[in-house]
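Sequence design from tokenized structure. All designs in this work follow the same two-part layout: the structure record, then the generated sequence. An example of the structure record is given first.
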């Protein structure tokens, strides 16, 4: 299937501000190494850590991009169609890319990195009926399984690199295991009654389950959902009754609903502040610690602990 057939099949593709952040154009990416295209930054980071210089890793979605709402541009479609391997999260995270990924899978290895995670460990929130919560990277121990799937997908397209991929993955998994324990230790320093995390959307459910934090999102699992006035008022009641000190904005989601909580609490004589910005569906800028998965997780934990403790 040619690039333009893919583009036509997808129909809704267009250039916009989100796509402008996606990454370099196909024409700018030369070289003979196999090209691996990753949808979200967390997958791109894992692929880069494992691949070394054996493959060329390209990310579609950059800093501040919301994968729930992301629409592919013609340039994105071209990158995907020319890839040797496509890695995506799955679990409906990349909802608007779903049809395109199905079409790609007919001619290009297209792998959901979450596909081997035991379903018993996936969250099934009642408001997201029929679907699993896709934000698995917020439980570092779960994300380790996704990392293993990235490793195996690279081996499937480049068997000669198996030894290198295995070695680099083992080192990365050891680092992630240490990070998982670091998260536990740091969050345990916040008194249990104060361990309440209120964020712009319900992305931190796995985080709360893994690290014993009560998590509440204003919007649902997907940022396509809109909170009602009743939802906002219910959260204000919770924040006032538990005397929660801070709520958090997210780098890839507008802050307006969190600001509404602050105003609602103020009207009830409770001083709620914005405790900082968390990375949820996208990592930080390239070249910064927060532009890596480990740095993103560490930033979030330290921001939460500082604001709540």
């Amino acid at each position: 299937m040619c690039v333009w057939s893919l583009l036509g099949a997808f129909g809704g593709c267009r250039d916009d501000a989100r796509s402008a952040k996606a990454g370099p154009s196909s024409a700018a990416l030369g070289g003979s190494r196999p090209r691996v295209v990753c949808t979200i930054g967390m997958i791109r980071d894992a692929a880069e850590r494992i691949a070394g210089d054996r493959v060329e890793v390209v990310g579609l979605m950059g800093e501040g991009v919301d994968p729930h709402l992301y629409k592919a541009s013609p340039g994105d479609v071209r990158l995907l169609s020319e890839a040797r391997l496509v890695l995506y999260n799955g679990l409906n995270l990349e909802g608007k890319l779903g049809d395109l990924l199905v079409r790609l899978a007919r001619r290009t290895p297209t792998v959901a990195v979450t596909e081997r995670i035991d379903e018993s460990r996936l969250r099934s929130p009642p408001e997201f009926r029929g679907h699993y919560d896709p934000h698995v990277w917020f439980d570092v121990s779960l994300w380790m399984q996704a990392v293993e799937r990235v490793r195996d997908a690279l081996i499937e397209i480049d068997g000669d690199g198996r030894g290198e991929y295995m070695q680099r993955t083992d080192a990365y998994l050891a680092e992630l295991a240490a990070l998982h324990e670091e998260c536990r230790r740091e969050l345990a320093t916040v008194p249990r009654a104060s361990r309440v995390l209120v964020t712009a959307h319900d992305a931190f459910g796995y985080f709360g389950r893994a690290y014993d934090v009560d998590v509440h999102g204003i919007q649902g699992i997907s940022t396509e959902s809109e909170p009602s006035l009743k939802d906002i008022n219910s959260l204000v009641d919770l924040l006032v009754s538990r005397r929660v000190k801070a709520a958090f904005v997210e780098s890839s989601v507008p802050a307006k609903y969190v600001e509404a909580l602050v105003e609602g609490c103020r009207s009830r004589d409770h001083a709620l502040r914005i405790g900082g910005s968390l990375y949820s569906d996208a990592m930080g800028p390239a070249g910064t610690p927060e532009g890596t998965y480990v740095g993103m997780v560490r930033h979030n934990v330290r921001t939460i602990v500082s604001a709540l403790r």
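DSSP finds eleven helices and eight strands in the chain. We note this feature because it recurs in several other targets discussed in the main text.
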